[in-house]
């Protein structure tokens, strides 16, 4: 005989889109446990690597850099099963959250119970306990005098829904408003999940985890038998800095190449200073360094972890050094350009601009493509993965717009 229910598991998920049937995936999960009276007994949350593009990032505020070290759902399926087993699932818009959870469980071969059937929806129950409240989470919380800070954060939303649950339970006391849900949860059959107990990664952890790429380079290397091969590194560096931003994936590529070439931190410091001098020579070519050119040199110095004096020193050295041609990336008329991700302006707008500049928008990444423009330069989309494999530069829409001027 099954034991009585352990309490409630209040859940919230952030997703790449609106429907699992459209191949949308979970990117963040928040779970709050409460006892039968609605008192919180524990909480958990993690980002989830969806292994695809993240969709409307302006809504959920999660970037590809945030999730690149996060577990996949398969890697946490065992933990999720343990968190839900024996508890009544609760969510604000239960049908939405449970549809995604069931789809993720199904994808890894776990036949979960029908969570929407055995669960409680705080949005639906608002009609019973908060009859004059709007149905959205913020509206219900406002009427019930529950604080809600940081909407569209899975754990914050799960906490808010848990507070609504406790509010409803208090209004229904001394009776339980959902006796059938309690019985169903206690008897629900949860199969054993295939492993999946990887460490969870909280939102914001990537900012704490990511160090400047130079911090991952050795201070020194053993005595070399061959001279330093700087060309490949400088070529990649120039490609990386096209959009004046070093993404997490680009930092990884720089570290991997520098390590493979046997470069130490002192080597990179020298190469970065030489690179800045070469750019300064370009700025001085017409005899005038504009404010915009100075700002760009300052920005690159910051990206390369050079000191605040680096730009002035580079300009002074550039004025006395014989110009050395610097191989720079440049698109040619007729080059193929691919776009990926949800941008503030529609894809059609960017493709029209590309055509007007003489480039050819292309639907897919092939080895013939010259450039990928990504809403998120760390994009996990198939296009971005192919571009990295082929060595195709990935830049932001803003950087592409500057190239069109």
UniProtKB/TrEMBL annotation:
Molecular functions per Gene Ontology: 3'-5' exonuclease activity; DNA binding; DNA-directed DNA polymerase activity
InterPro entries in the cross-refs: BRCT_dom_sf, DnaQ, Ribonucl_H, RNaseH-like_sf, RNaseH_sf, TerB-like
Cited Gene3D superfamilies: BRCT domain, Ribonuclease H-like superfamily/Ribonuclease H
Keywords: Exonuclease, Hydrolase, Nuclease
Methyltransferase is among the record's keywords: no
Name of the featured protein: Exonuclease domain-containing protein
GO biological process, one term: DNA replication
GO cellular component, as recorded: cytosol
Signal peptide bounds: none
Domain named Exonuclease: residues: 7-174
Nuclease listed as a keyword: yes
SMART domains named in the record: EXOIII
Xref: Pfam families: RNase_T (PF00929)
């Amino acid at each position: 005989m099954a034991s009585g229910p352990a309490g409630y598991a209040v859940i919230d998920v952030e997703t790449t889109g609106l429907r699992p049937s459209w191949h949308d995936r979970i990117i963040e999960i928040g779970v709050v446990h409460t006892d039968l009276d609605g008192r919180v007994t524990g909480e958990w949350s993690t980002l989830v690597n969806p292994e695809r593009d993240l969709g409307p990032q302006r809504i959920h505020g999660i970037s590809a850099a945030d999730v690149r070290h996060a577990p996949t759902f398969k890697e946490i399926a065992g933990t999720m099963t343990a968190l839900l087993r024996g508890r009544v699932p609760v969510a604000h818009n239960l049908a939405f959250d449970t549809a995604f959870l069931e789809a993720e469980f199904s994808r890894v071969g776990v036949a979960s119970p029908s969570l929407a059937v055995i669960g409680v929806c705080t949005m639906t129950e608002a009609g019973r306990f908060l009859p004059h409240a709007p149905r959205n989470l913020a509206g219900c919380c406002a009427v019930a005098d529950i604080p809600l800070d940081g909407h569209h954060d899975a754990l914050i939303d799960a906490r808010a829904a848990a507070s609504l649950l406790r509010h409803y339970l208090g209004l229904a006391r001394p009776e339980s408003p959902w006796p059938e849900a309690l019985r169903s949860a206690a008897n629900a059959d949860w199969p054993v999940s295939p492993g999946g107990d990887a460490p969870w990664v909280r939102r914001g952890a990537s900012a704490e985890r990511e160090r400047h790429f130079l911090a991952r380079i050795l201070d020194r290397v053993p005595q070399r038998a061959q001279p330093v091969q700087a060309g490949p590194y400088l070529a990649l560096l120039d490609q990386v800095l096209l959009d004046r931003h070093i993404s997490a994936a680009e930092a990884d590529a720089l570290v991997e190449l520098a390590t493979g070439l046997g470069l130490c931190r002192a080597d990179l410091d020298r190469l970065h200073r030489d690179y800045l001098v070469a750019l300064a020579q370009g700025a001085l070519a017409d005899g005038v360094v504009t404010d915009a050119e100075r700002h760009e040199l300052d920005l690159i110095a910051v990206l390369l972890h050079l000191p605040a004096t680096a730009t002035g020193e580079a300009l002074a050295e550039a004025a006395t050094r014989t110009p050395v041609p610097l191989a720079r990336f440049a698109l040619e008329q007729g080059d193929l350009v691919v776009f990926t991700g949800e941008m503030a302006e529609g894809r059609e707008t960017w493709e029209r601009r590309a055509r007007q500049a003489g480039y050819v928008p292309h639907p897919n990444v092939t080895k013939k493509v010259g450039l990928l423009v990504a809403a998120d330069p760390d994009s996990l989309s198939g296009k971005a993965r192919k571009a990295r494999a082929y060595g195709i530069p990935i830049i932001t829409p803003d950087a592409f717009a500057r190239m069109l001027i």
